[in-house]
Amino acid sequence: MTAIQGVTQGQESAFPKAEYDARVAKARAGLAEAGIDVMIVTGPENIFYLTGQQTPGYYTFQALVLPVEGDPVFVVRQLEYFNFVANTYITDAAIYQDTDDPVRFLVSLIEARGLKGKRVAIDKRGWFLPIATYEALLAALGSVHDAAGVVEKLRMVKSPLEVEKLAIAATYVDAGLRAGLAAVRAGNTENDIVAAMMGAAIEAGSEYMGMEPLVSSGPRSGVPHGTWKRREMKAGDPAFLEMAAVHDRYHAALMRSAWIGTPPAEALDMMKVCQEALAVSLEAIKPGVPCEVPHIACQKVIDAAGYTDNFRKRLGYSVGISFAPDWGEGGILSLNAGVKTELQPGMAFHLPPALRIYGRFTVGVSETIVVTDSGCRVLGSVDRALVQTPA
């Protein structure tokens, strides 16, 4: 192994070099099939998938220049260079300084490598490609093709090593949810719940999450995607808890519900429907089945119970590599009506059926799963029942 000023190449890599070599080879095959000569990869998830590079500093410009033929080169800020050495096996880095214009730096590199005039493409669908950056590249190169989907298609199906990461992350989120549910009691605040959840998950082994936990109580729980705001809980309150935990950037997520005291009959019925909807969805997941099938199975249960207006969303979304601001891969693949992509062994999803009466309460339950050769493997181990704590 090569060492550079005391930092060994790949010393913190999430996977062995052979895993990345196989991914790069598949990506190059996809580029060749699309008629692309070189791809500029800017999304941190795609960069991590192909190279192992991970940093919270992706708010500054970074890019993998991946030609169909020839060695890849990584454009990296000086401050991030030794992070790059530690996380990757790529030996060719083009380092820019904070005084440089990184886009001009990238264009100069493309010209110096004889790639200008080739069919250059970029992963346009990511969240981390500013319009100004794209327009500057377009002005400098004359044309920039769309390579969105080339790497994402590969990320849909997880390798056995990736599934192992997800399974470990699921143990962290189990610890977090158990601690959070134990903290649901009168006199505690939403902050107390989140502190317990995050503390337990991190103590179990989790790294920083792609998104904060979603925790709310009382009437606040009836607002979608609300999260903690110091509210003190009291007798009769519902509590809604959802979080993800992370192992080597692979996220597993989990949702559970609790009530202080006796829940109203309406909430118990809605929770029962959520549990049934999740169960039939899990039964519907099999290789070769279109992604919409488990969603439709879920929706039928909810519609039959009369809660159609309380469930206006997809059943689930792909999970795997994530950086803030999300813990999911929902932009890659969804379990939703109209999605005809067939399920394959190695695909991973978070399925969070939830029902809410807006402004009053939400109840829900979820699992993170991996598609297997015959069905699916549930990664979590937390009981799905609505937790009731003494008033």
Observed structural traits:
Creatine Amidinohydrolase, Chain A, domain 1; alpha+beta; about 400 residues; six-stranded mixed β-sheet; Creatine Amidinohydrolase; 19 strands; about 20% strand
Q: Quickly give the structural class.
A: alpha+beta
Could you spell the SSE succession in H and E letters?
EEHEHEEHEHEHEHHHEEEHHEEEEEEEE
Number of helices: 10
Largest sheet properties: 6 strands, mixed
- The CA-CA distance between the termini, in Å, is 60 Å
Q: How many domains would you count in the coordinates?
A: 2
> What is the residue-mean pLDDT, rounded to a whole number?
95
Here the CATH topology of the largest domain equals Creatine Amidinohydrolase
Apparent shape = elongated
Strand order of the largest sheet: 6-5-4-3-7-8
What are the low-pLDDT stretches, counting only 5+ consecutive residues below 50? none
Indicate the percent of residues in helices: 25-40%
CATH-defined architecture of the largest domain: Alpha-Beta Complex
Radius of gyration: 23 Å
| CATH homologous group name of the largest domain | Creatinase/methionine aminopeptidase superfamily
Which CATH top level class of the largest domain fits? Alpha Beta
Total beta-strand segments? 19
